[in-house]
DNA sequence: CCATTCTTGTTTGTATGCGAATGACTATCA
DNA sequence: TGATAGTCATTCGCATACAAACAAGAATGG
C-alpha cells in the first residue's frame, strides 16, 4: 500500500498470488525436492536426508531433539524416524537415565548411506542454485536465513 | 569446493544440512504457513487461498488448468478443490464442449471469502518479509523468482 | 474414418506437516 | 513428600504433495 503523491489517496497494489512470497517459497521448495529426488533417486527424501545427516552430526540424540534440530514437528519426526528404522538406517535404544526417551543413532548401513550420498546432496544444492550467479547465491542465502 | 591459495589443494566445504538451500526453503515456507494460519485462522490454508485467489482471476477454469496455474499436481488440486466444493466456496459445472472437463467457478460465498481475506493475505506476506528491509525484499523476491 | 496419441479427471499408495489429545515419566518447588 | 508443571513419545485427524495406473473423451494424422 502506498500513498499517491498526486491524489493523496491510498493506492492498492494489485494482489497477485503468484507474486507473493508464500507462493514463491512453496514453488521453489517444490523445485528443489524434484531436483533432489532426480539426483538421489527414490532411496531418500529431502526430509529423510536432513534427519540422517543431522543425526550423524549429533549422535546420539533423542527423537524429539532431532526433530527440533531439523525443524520437524514431533508427529512428523516420528514418521520419518519410523521409516528410517524400518529400513535399517537408524537404530533406537531406550535411554538408561530417562525412561521416556528413545536414543537414536545411525546404524553401520546408515553411516554408509550418509557418506555415499553427501556428494549427491551437494549436487542437488548446486543445481537448485544454478539459476543464480555466485554473488547472487551469497545474498540469497543470507536473506533466506533471515526468514527462518 | 574451492582451491586453497596456500596449499593448492581442493578444500571441501564442510557439509551442514542447516546451511543448504533445501533445508532453508523448507523452514522459510513453514514459517510463512504458520504466520498465514495465525492471521487467517483455520478457515483457509495457504494452498486453498492460492486456489481461490487464482480462480477469481481466471474464472471460469478447468480443474487441471487451475492446478497448473497454482503449481499443484493433478492429485493435489483435486483434493484442494474437493474440500473447497464441500465447503460451498467453489462450484463445478460440466463443460458443454468437452465432456471430460469440469468447469470451476467461485460461488457467491467464495467471492466473499476472497474479498474478505485479501487484506489478511497481504498482512501475512508483510509479516513473513518483516525481517527484511524494503530494499532487501525487492532483491530477495527477484532472486527467489529465478529459483521457481 | 480409424488408430494412435494426448488430455482430463480419478484413485491408490507413500511421505510430509501440523494441531491436539493422551499417557508415562521427570523435575521442581513449596 | 506431594502436588504441579514440564517433557517425551505416541496417536488421531486433516491437508498437502507426488508417482503411477486407469478410464473416458478429444485431436490428430494417415
Automatic annotation (TrEMBL), chains A, B:
Native species: Rhizobium tubonense
Pfam families tied to this protein: MarR
Source organism, top-level taxon: Bacteria
Organism lineage string: Bacteria, Pseudomonadati, Pseudomonadota, Alphaproteobacteria, Hyphomicrobiales
GO biological process: response to stress
Molecular function via GO: DNA-binding transcription factor activity
Residue span(s) of domain HTH marR-type: 18-148
PANTHER family in the record: TRANSCRIPTIONAL REGULATOR (PTHR33164:SF95), TRANSCRIPTIONAL REGULATOR, MARR FAMILY (PTHR33164)
Protein name: MarR family transcriptional regulator
